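TL;DR need structure tokens for one chain.
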Amino acid sequence: MTRTAAVTAAIATGMRALVLAAGLVAATIALMPQTAFGASRIKDIADFEGVRDNLLVGYGIVVGLNGTGDDLTNTPFTKESLVGMLERLGVNIRQQGGTIATVKPKNVAAVMVTADLPPYARLGQRLDVTLSSLGDSSSLAGGTLLVAPLKGLDGTVYAVAQGPVSVGGFQAGGEAASVSKNHPTVGRIPRGALVERELPLEFAQLTSLTVNLNNPDFTTAHRMAGRINQALPHLRAQALDPSTIKVDMPGPTADPVGTMARLETLDVSPDTAAKVVVDERTGTVVMGEQVRISTVAVASGALSISITETPEVSQALPLAPGGQTVVVPRTQVQASEQKRALAVLPSGASIGDVVKALNALGATPRDLIVILQAIKAAGALQAELEII
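>> reply
TL;DR here they are.
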């Protein structure tokens, strides 16, 4: 084989290798899951009915405080709770005639205990709890919560909390001054509650699911139902209203968790209404991508007026008969107006075009609020203007 033929064969071999590599890359990309532009997972834009937290609340006593507890004279409920707890433990502090002995400890505080019971919580599962002082305690630092039952709205005890309190602040001081950081009257007990009762919900026996959109919208509900029917043909999804999609299952499925996992990871492109949100207190303006503006001309100029007062003293000459000292006012007024060009926003301008044009005018966020309000008043802003 000649040298030229060898070179030609090597080039041909290299080209075939490149074509094969390109084909493998293209096949790999084709097999990868594609996500539509601007699409979101169902689990991020909707909730499943029944799969939610439940609020728990309870009343408890924190002991072991370093003189920062409730004043039992001002908080009779703390005193009654302390007496009742001691009596249940076999300690009698009542005098003859049934009157309660004088007790003035400063290491006890009454608190409200709150927690969230997650869906499908099982017996023995640990929950985080939050404690908030109910009386006039100045700090819960160093305290320990005694057994406190946590109830739901139906009055049933679902969990029991107890443990040392963790406070993310402090307070210290004397008779004349004190210093504090954060809120020492609120604390937490990580994993401080035990689940004692489960919620009656058999997920595997469900024959239908209800999906609730976080932001109700007809278009998004229709798209979601169509996406579910396309990706999971063995299910039947139907949009009942702008916020509710009902998903019927053929019957108790053998893999309900797998079905839910595939369902909640489906990509749906949510549709949003054109809206401009303006916060005049902070000068914040937020515009959605659907905001459009009809043809309109905008000019913005700032007028500033400066007034300076410089009083002067006029004093009589020495030995002048009847001379008086007089204060003569001197006022200087200056007015200046910025010269800015007239910008024309064409019909159908997007949010990017609007921002560029207004930035070219040198508009500040405060100016932008006034300009948007004026454009809306002129009927050229094709969006809802919400002022918060």
